[in-house]
Amino acid sequence: MQPQYRRLFIGIPLSHPLTKRLGREASQWPEEATLVTRGENLHLLLHHFGFILEEDIYSVSEKLREALGDKEAFDIHFDTIMLHESEENPKEIWLSGGESEELLDLKKTIDTLFTHKTHELRSFRPHVILAKLKKNRWLKLTPAPQIAKEVNFAEPVDKGVLYESLTIDGKRTYEAVDTFPLV
Questions:
Q1: What does the H/E/C string look like for the chain?
Q2: Is residue 38 within 8 Å of residue 170, measured between CB atoms?
Q3: N- to C-terminal Cα distance for the chain?
Q4: What Å distances lie between residue 51 and 38, 59, 111, 164, CA to CA?
Q5: Which residues of the chain have pLDDT under 70?
Q6: Would you state the pLDDT for residue 3?
Q7: pTM above 0.85?
Q8: For a FRET experiment, which of 115, 129, 146, 149 has its CA 20 to 30 Å from that of 66?
């Protein structure tokens, strides 16, 4: 029998009120040029594992549970909706925020467990991918859509979630495999 792999990542889910608010923002973007992330898939990515053997998932969960078990809950702040990479080379629409020491600590903890980086991460700015862009269609829009917007969203971070990335009925879906509450 072939080994079974699952595509996993750990992220921070967004609250329902923020997801609703972002949905209202996305409804103003040109449908013909954007692939909006469905509300239930919105998250802040902390670490992408890639394909993990089914038999190794329990070990990954246990390492995360132990490492995150003493981390305190905190808030993160988002201040901008923006085009990423640039107006000349648009790829995605992001919700972005300022640096957060607590978020940096959380990311470092996870990275230390699962990577062999030779340099220490010095900063980590949170971002959430709100939409992917159909670049050729986007660049043909006249006038060019104005996406950049200052916002002021505070979002509680009270858990990390181990997600599996699946395609169901042709749609990308992120299903929770395990949840790791912060104290």
A1: CCCCEEEEEEEEECCHHHHHHHHHHHCCCCHHHEEECCHHHCEEEEEEEEEEEHHHHHHHHHHHHHHHCCCCCEEEEEEEEEEEECCCCEEEEEEEECCCHHHHHHHHHHHHHHCCCCCCCCCCCCEEEEEEECHHHHHHCCCCCCCCEEEEEEEEECEEEEEEEEEECCEEEEEEEEEEECC
A2: no
A3: 41
A4: 23, 14, 16, 10
A5: 117-119
A6: 86
A7: yes
A8: 129
Residue with token string 């790829």: 91
Provide the pLDDT for residue 9.
Answer: 98
Lookup result for tokens 């670049």? 135
Q: How far apart are CA 19 and CA 182, in angstroms?
A: 21
Note the pLDDT of residue 120: 77
Q: Name 60's Cβ contacts closer than 8 Å, sequence gap at least 6.
A: 8, 49, 52, 114, 162
Rounded distance, CA 175 to CA 142, Å? 38
pLDDT of residue 118: 59
| Residue 106: partners with Cβ closer than 8 Å, 6 or more residues away | 46, 68, 71, 157, 160
User: 């903890």: which residue's tokens?
Assistant: 109
